[in-house]
């Protein structure tokens, strides 16, 4: 039986794209599964002038469009609406009154979640106003804040934002969303690592040769140049998603399976990450920008709409991370991400050390590789050494393969559903912790500032390839190669 949750959720930005596509369908799924039954209330608020009925229609339409279902009135009656300009302190009073009304109507015990699905420039203002205007409950079990990305644009802005949030919320009340942490196969990393004695024992420098994390996209910048040209792949994909995946891979075993211990173990790993000097950036990081494809049918980045003709922006990043911990000393973590690459995938390849060749095999033994494929389909592959079937005793690599089935997939919650549920349940295991975010920004800022100080010849990779040659050379210098070749 699902544990029924008693809470009020206030969605700021309630008429926005994210709310419509992801947030209401997620809440509806939680209702269908019985996590939300009688004691929940949902308030939508935004600048739009809507009646409660119109808002309920908006939610019904969202569920119709994205889930192809008719939401029942018993669900929709829990939704209410208040127009408010979040930059105006006076408007919060109306919101407060509605919160208190729903709190009584549905017996919500003063349990409150505030979800900021608004432009990042508003995050700090909303958090402060929630406190100053008295919207946080004083007698409930919890007040929690869910916050969308991006969390700052560099360390300084992230720290400032965090200070603003801290006026109203403690770290354990803040749920920073990184939807990669809500993905099934990212959550599977822990099960594989800590649930299998063989892997648990081998997850260290003694047995692991190198670790590779790839987040590749086939699309180009499309119509997002206004944002993307100031962010680049480094801030758009490395600082957040890639580093959060690395957190699960690099951490030690947590003392227990609680969010506090999980976050502490990840933080210890993040704190042992080496922040590079400009020379080390040049040695360990590669930036790229896409040119046209081989057949010249697609624009290069510099010819995309709204991209400045002399842009030095990175649409591709590959690099090597170094951890100073006992577990990972001298084990490179290679990461890469980029636009207009050969394939769209998110995957992790764990390359184990070469076995000792006892056999009369002339060829060296293949290294074992554990691949965790996150997207587009969940898959686990393990390539290991086995006997060749011919008369002579020779070896060859074989691959064991498991794929998430259609039935599994059908019952797997979407990341947003999981994140909303976990916040309601007070489980912060799959959210970004401030310490991790701060380290990731310091790491990324060091790279960005080294790049800002030097010019690079662009474009340096062909659309539809797997990135610049320099990214292959980065691994070749260490005697390694990218496992995934597109
Ligand atoms: P959007 O522009 O579609 O919606 C913004 C919402 O904010 C609207 O409801 C609008 O009325 C409200 N708003 C704007 N100014 C306001 C004000 N002064 N007072 C009160 N309300 C105001 O934005 P979105 O795409 O839904 O994105 C919301 C957040 O989610 C952003 O932080 C974004 O980075 C993040 N996000 C969005 C997506 C996505 O797929 N859309 C994905 C990941 C993260």
From TrEMBL:
<comment type="pathway">
    <text>Carbohydrate degradation; pentose phosphate pathway; D-ribulose 5-phosphate from D-glucose 6-phosphate (oxidative stage): step 1/3.</text>
</comment>
<dbReference type="InterPro" id="IPR036291">
    <property type="entry name" value="NAD(P)-bd_dom_sf"/>
</dbReference>
<keyword id="KW-0560">Oxidoreductase</keyword>
<feature type="binding site">
    <location>
        <position position="149"/>
    </location>
    <ligand>
        <name>NADP(+)</name>
    </ligand>
</feature>
<dbReference type="Pfam" id="PF00479">
    <property type="entry name" value="G6PD_N"/>
</dbReference>
<dbReference type="InterPro" id="IPR001282">
    <property type="entry name" value="G6P_DH"/>
</dbReference>
<feature type="active site" description="Proton acceptor">
    <location>
        <position position="241"/>
    </location>
</feature>
<dbReference type="InterPro" id="IPR019796">
    <property type="entry name" value="G6P_DH_AS"/>
</dbReference>
<feature type="binding site">
    <location>
        <position position="217"/>
    </location>
    <ligand>
        <name>substrate</name>
    </ligand>
</feature>
<feature type="binding site">
    <location>
        <position position="47"/>
    </location>
    <ligand>
        <name>NADP(+)</name>
    </ligand>
</feature>
<feature type="binding site">
    <location>
        <begin position="85"/>
        <end position="86"/>
    </location>
    <ligand>
        <name>NADP(+)</name>
    </ligand>
</feature>
<feature type="domain" description="Glucose-6-phosphate dehydrogenase C-terminal">
    <location>
        <begin position="191"/>
        <end position="482"/>
    </location>
</feature>
<feature type="binding site">
    <location>
        <position position="236"/>
    </location>
    <ligand>
        <name>substrate</name>
    </ligand>
</feature>
<feature type="binding site">
    <location>
        <position position="339"/>
    </location>
    <ligand>
        <name>substrate</name>
    </ligand>
</feature>
<feature type="binding site">
    <location>
        <begin position="13"/>
        <end position="20"/>
    </location>
    <ligand>
        <name>NADP(+)</name>
    </ligand>
</feature>
<feature type="binding site">
    <location>
        <position position="183"/>
    </location>
    <ligand>
        <name>substrate</name>
    </ligand>
</feature>
<keyword id="KW-0119">Carbohydrate metabolism</keyword>
<dbReference type="InterPro" id="IPR022675">
    <property type="entry name" value="G6P_DH_C"/>
</dbReference>
<comment type="function">
    <text>Catalyzes the oxidation of glucose 6-phosphate to 6-phosphogluconolactone.</text>
</comment>
<dbReference type="Pfam" id="PF02781">
    <property type="entry name" value="G6PD_C"/>
</dbReference>
<feature type="binding site">
    <location>
        <position position="344"/>
    </location>
    <ligand>
        <name>substrate</name>
    </ligand>
</feature>
<dbReference type="GO" id="GO:0004345">
    <property type="term" value="F:glucose-6-phosphate dehydrogenase activity"/>
</dbReference>
<feature type="domain" description="Glucose-6-phosphate dehydrogenase NAD-binding">
    <location>
        <begin position="11"/>
        <end position="188"/>
    </location>
</feature>
<keyword id="KW-0313">Glucose metabolism</keyword>
<feature type="binding site">
    <location>
        <position position="179"/>
    </location>
    <ligand>
        <name>substrate</name>
    </ligand>
</feature>
<protein>
    <recommendedName>
        <fullName>Glucose-6-phosphate 1-dehydrogenase</fullName>
        <ecNumber>1.1.1.49</ecNumber>
    </recommendedName>
</protein>
<keyword id="KW-0521">NADP</keyword>
<dbReference type="InterPro" id="IPR022674">
    <property type="entry name" value="G6P_DH_NAD-bd"/>
</dbReference>
<comment type="similarity">
    <text>Belongs to the glucose-6-phosphate dehydrogenase family.</text>
</comment>
């Amino acid at each position: 039986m699902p544990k029924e949750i008693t809470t009020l959720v206030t969605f700021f930005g309630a008429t926005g794209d994210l709310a419509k596509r992801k947030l209401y369908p997620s809440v509806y799924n939680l209702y269908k599964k019985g996590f939300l039954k009688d004691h929940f209330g949902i308030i939508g608020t935004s600048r739009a002038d809507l009646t409660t009925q119109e808002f309920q229609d908006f939610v019904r339409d969202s569920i119709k469009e994205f889930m192809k279902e008719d939401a029942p009135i018993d669900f929709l009656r829990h939704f209410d609406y208040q127009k408010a300009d979040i930059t105006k302190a006076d408007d919060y009073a109306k919101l407060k009154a509605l919160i208190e009304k729903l709190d009584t109507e549905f017996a919500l015990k003063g349990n409150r979640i505030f979800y900021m699905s608004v432009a990042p420039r508003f995050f700090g203002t909303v958090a402060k106003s929630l406190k100053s205007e008295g919207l946080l409950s004083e007698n409930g079990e919890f007040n929690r804040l869910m916050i969308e990305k991006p969390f700052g644009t560099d360390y300084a802005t992230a720290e400032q934002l965090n200070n603003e949030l801290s006026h109203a919320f403690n770290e354990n009340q803040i749920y920073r969303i990184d939807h990669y942490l809500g993905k099934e196969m990212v959550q599977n990393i822990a099960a594989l690592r800590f649930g299998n004695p063989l892997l648990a024992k081998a997850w260290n420098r003694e047995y692991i040769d190198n670790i590779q994390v790839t987040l590749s996209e086939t699309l180009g910048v499309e119509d997002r140049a206004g944002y993307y040209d100031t962010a680049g792949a480094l801030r758009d994909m490395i600082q957040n998603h890639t580093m959060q995946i690395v957190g699960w891979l690099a951490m030690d075993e947590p003392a227990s399976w609680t969010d506090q211990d999980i976050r502490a173990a990840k933080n210890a790993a993040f704190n042992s990450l080496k922040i590079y000097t400009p020379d080390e950036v040049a040695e360990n990081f590669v930036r790229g920008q896409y040119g046209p494809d081989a057949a010249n049918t697609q624009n290069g980045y510099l010819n995309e709409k709204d991209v400045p003709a002399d842009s030095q922006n990175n649409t591709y990043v590959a690099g090597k991370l170094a951890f100073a911990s006992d577990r990972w000393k001298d084990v490179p973590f290679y990461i890469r991400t980029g636009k207009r690459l050969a394939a769209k995938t998110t995957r992790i390849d764990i390359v184990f050390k070469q076995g000792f060749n006892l056999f009369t095999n002339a060829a060296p033994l293949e290294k074992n590789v554990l691949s965790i494929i996150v997207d587009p389909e969940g898959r686990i592959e393990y390539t290991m050494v086995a006997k060749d079937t011919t008369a002579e005793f020779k070896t060859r690599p074989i691959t064991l393969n498991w794929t998430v089935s259609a039935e599994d997939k059908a019952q797997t919650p979407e990341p947003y559903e999981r994140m909303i549920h976990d916040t309601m349940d007070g489980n912060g295991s799959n959210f970004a912790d401030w310490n991790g975010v701060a380290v990731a920004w310091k790491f990324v800022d060091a790279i960005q500032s080294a790049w800002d100080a030097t010019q690079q010849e662009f474009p340096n990779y062909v659309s539809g390839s797997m990135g610049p040659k320099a990214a292959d050379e980065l691994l070749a210098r260490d005697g390694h190669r990218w496992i995934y070749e597109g």
